């Protein structure tokens, strides 16, 4: 058992507020993570590439189970409160020995949300270590608020719009190594990045974003989410339809439109942020 697992809920919350992330957090046995990986890869065979497909919990039951796992939701509630929406979830995959990487960035810089009562969970379905390109985070960087993001022309940078933050003090970065079944949780202003996967296995992570129910979308009025804890008294979002089976045809049609909206939201906000720069 690692230190994070031994910590009380209050201690975890204090650490998250200080550092801007928690890692590693044990969620499930490695064998269970392997089962979810197998389910994901079977779905890939039928659906096609699932990397960065938005709101996969609307078309597949495995990501819905992961996003609503009791240990996940207990941690999320300790960090952002009792009333929680699942705003988005996707798989993030780095193929073996690839050049794909994620540059330094802050999630909230391009999501269009009006508040930062938010947390992202990254759950390892295969080993995430320094060889396979695990996430790296800068402790305490969330306390500085939004940083300027610059466009790049790096084709191997897999972020939407290829944006990056320059002049990050990488000597302060911490590698968030995860075994299958372990997760990290990070704040939307925390500086984070990851390097290429130099291993001989796929690096597969399940990434879910949670927001408090009072948070709203600033760019448009037709964003969607799913209540996973507590009560939603605000109703800022339309309701996502959770998957009841895998790859239902009606669900697939809805997800294609949801994916388009998420990509437009993130791309538009990034473009607007860059346009505001002097």
Write the SSE topology.
Blueprint: H1 3-6, H2 9-19, E1 21-26, H3 30-47, H4 61-67, H5 70-80, E2 84-94, E3 102-105, E4 118-124, E5 135-137, E6 150-151, E7 163-164, E8 174-175, E9 182-186, E10 192-194, E11 203-212, E12 224-229, E13 238-239, H6 249-275
Give the gist of this structure.
The chain is α+β, with helices and mostly antiparallel strands and 278 residues long.
Number of strands: 13
Question: What order do the SSEs take from the amino end to the carboxyl end, as H and E?
Answer: HHEHHHEEEEEEEEEEEEH
Q: Helical stretch count?
A: 6
Which residue ranges are poorly predicted, with pLDDT under 50 across at least 5 consecutive positions? Answer: 268-278
Distance between the termini: 49 Å
- Major β-sheet profile: 7 strands, mixed
| Strand-residue proportion | 15-25%
Taking all Cα atoms into account, the compactness measure Rg is 17 Å
Spatial strand sequence of the major β-sheet: 1-9-4-11-2-12-13
């Amino acid at each position: 058992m690692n230190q994070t697992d031994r910590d009380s809920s209050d201690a975890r919350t204090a650490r998250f507020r200080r550092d801007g992330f928690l890692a590693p957090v044990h969620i499930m046995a490695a064998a269970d993570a392997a089962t979810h990986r197998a389910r994901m890869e079977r779905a890939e065979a039928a659906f096609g590439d699932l990397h960065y497909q938005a709101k996969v919990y609307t078309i597949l039951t495995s990501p819905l189970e992961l996003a609503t796992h009791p240990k996940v939701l207990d941690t999320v509630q300790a960090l952002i409160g009792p009333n929680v929406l699942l705003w988005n979830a996707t798989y993030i995959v780095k193929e073996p020995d690839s050049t794909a990487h994620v540059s330094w960035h802050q999630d909230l810089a391009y999501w269009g949300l009006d508040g930062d009562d938010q947390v992202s969970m990254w759950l390892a379905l295969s080993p995430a270590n320094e060889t396979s390109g695990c996430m790296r985070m800068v402790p305490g960087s969330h306390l500085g608020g939004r940083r300027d993001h610059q466009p790049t022309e790096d084709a191997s940078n897999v972020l939407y719009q290829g944006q990056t933050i320059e002049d990050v003090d990488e000597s302060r970065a911490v590698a968030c190594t995860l075994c299958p079944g372990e997760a990290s949780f990070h704040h939307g202003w925390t500086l984070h990045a990851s390097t290429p996967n130099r291993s001989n296995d796929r690096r597969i992570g399940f990434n879910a974003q949670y927001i408090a129910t009072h948070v709203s979308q600033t760019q448009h009025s037709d964003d969607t989410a799913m209540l996973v804890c507590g009560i939603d008294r605000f109703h800022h979002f339309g309701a996502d339809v959770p998957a009841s089976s895998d790859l239902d045809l009606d669900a697939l049609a809805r997800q294609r439109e949801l994916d388009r909206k998420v990509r437009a939201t993130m791309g538009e906000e990034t473009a607007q942020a860059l346009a505001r720069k002097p």
